[in-house]
Amino acid sequence: NMSDNATEKTFTVALMTSGGLAPCLASSFASLCTYWLEALKTQKIGGLNVIAYKAGYKGMLLGDSLQLSMDDLEEVGCLHTMGGSPILNSRVKLTNIKDCVKRGLCKEGEDPLEVAAQQLLKDGVSVIHTIGGDDTNTQAAELSKYILEKHGGKITVVGMPKTIDNDVYPIKQTFGADTAAEEGAAFFANVVSESTANPRMLIIHECMGRDSGYLTAASAKKYRDIVRSQKFPTALASNASTRDIHAIWIPELPVDIEKEGVRLKKIMDENGNVNIFLSEGSGVHDIVAEMKAKGETVPTDAFGHVSLAKINPGQYFAKRLSELIGAEKCLVQKSGYFARAAPSNEYDRTLINKCAKTAVESAIASVSGCMGEDEDVEGTPIRAIEFERIKGGKPFNKDQAWFNKMLTEIGQI
Question: Within its chain, how far is the Cα of 391 from the centroid?
């Protein structure tokens, strides 16, 4: 039934999650399913089929999907307390033909965009919800445009913006970022006790964040709230000062390692330990430049991003700084996987729920876009933001008062 009246139309809704994990995938999936079911029950739509492509664009290219019954949709509530993706993720770039062929996702000579388009048309999809970062959502917009131009088919794409980096224009807060910061703080609240395991201990807490220092800064703020809430016997050696953060290094701030070395050596001499929160993207430019100068090959992934795991900024800084401050022992601990694999916290569940409600209303009205609080519109309303305005790489605003207050308190500025 091709009626324009939604109340008479049967919607075939496809959901997929894609990219790296974030503490919001399961919750976003659950909220969307719940609001689609509600739309059916309240007769806002005439009928409903729900499918989920397994492992993101991989499932779409291979035609690997799960069919969800109405009973299945009734059961999704339990997903709000679950981390990861209930329908699995993958990292696939549809326009990287070579990579898709190599991974067996399409045949030599095939265009992955065309393969994906054919699958969506075959499955009769009218709405697709992409739960992912800026790469995932902009790819979905490209695909929708391709289907309209090449096949005259209209598919509404409504994305949900997940990224723990909180670095998407013009979205005020991406899903999962607040939870990841809370989890990163909880992670370090345990790890910091290692400062008592050895004299002159340097601990580097490496947080995820390729180009944005948001997660490192937000984790630091939440961690310092934890320390403030604790009581320490004044006479003893481990206290609020030894458990505080002594440096916060993010990509948006240049790090003068020699100068910081002098400052932190004083702290090491007084405290007997130093704790640093480091964003994984900090100093990458310096490390890459050094690698190139030595004639080494810089490892990259399918999206052309520098493979951070392979160049390891944490280890690089650990080695340089240990010498400068006279650390006897150095520990680099990465909270990334621990933090991003958590279930959504209450803040994120509330945000996701509001966005999912509007997402379903938008989809029913055939309005495509990426959900979020639109910073460019008065009052930052939740709306389906036009895909052409969605862009990754938004830097953390280092001029915010709370951040500068924190840097002042720890003596970094």
Answer: 14
Report the C-alpha gap between 162 and 388 in whole angstroms.
17
Is 33 within 8 Å of 17 (Cβ atoms)?
no
Q: What is the DSSP letter of 388?
A: G
Which tens digit of pLDDT belongs to each residue from 237-279? 999 999 999 999 999 998 888 899 999 999 999 999 999 999 9
Beta strand segments in 176-296, E: 201-207, 247-249, 273-279
Tally of residues, the chain: 413
Run of H or E residues at 97:
helix 97-102
Q: Are 71 and 103 in contact (CB under 8 A)?
A: no
Model pTM above 0.85: yes
pLDDT of residue 156: 95
56-101 pLDDT, tens digit per residue, is 999 999 999 999 999 999 999 999 999 999 999 999 999 999 999 9
Coil, helix or strand for 83?
Answer: coil
Contact 344, 179 (CB under 8 A): yes
State the pairing for strand pair 127-132/329-334.
Answer: unpaired
The 10 Å Cβ neighbour count of residue 405 is 11
Structure confidence by residue, pLDDT tens digits, 29-58: 999 999 999 999 999 999 999 999 999 999
CA angle 159, 301, 254 (to 5 degrees): 90
344-374: b or e for each residue (b if 16 or more CB lie within 10 Å)?
A: bbeebbebbbebbbbbbebbbeeebbbbbbb
Q: What are phi and psi of 27, to 5 degrees?
A: -65, -40
Q: Which two tokens stand for residue 381?
A: 């309303």
Query: Are 345 and 182 contacting, i.e. CB atoms less than 8 angstroms apart?
Result: yes
Q: Give yes or no for a cis peptide into 170 (omega within 30° of 0).
A: yes
Q: How far apart are the first and last CA of the chain?
A: 65
Q: Where would I find the H helices in 272-400?
A: 284-293, 308-311, 313-325, 336-340, 346-364
Residue 3 pLDDT greater than 50, yes or no: no
Can you tell me the distance from the alpha carbon of 99 to that of 52, in angstroms, rounded to the nearest whole number? 23
| Block residue for tokens 């460019």 | 376
For residue range 392-404, list pLDDT tens digits in order: 999 999 999 999 9
Task: Place 142 in a pLDDT band, splitting at 50, 70 and 90.
Answer: very high
Burial of 117 from C-beta contacts in 10 A (0-12 / 13-18 / 19+)? buried
What positions carry a catalytic annotation? 165
Nearest to 245, CA basis, from 217, 269, 270: 217
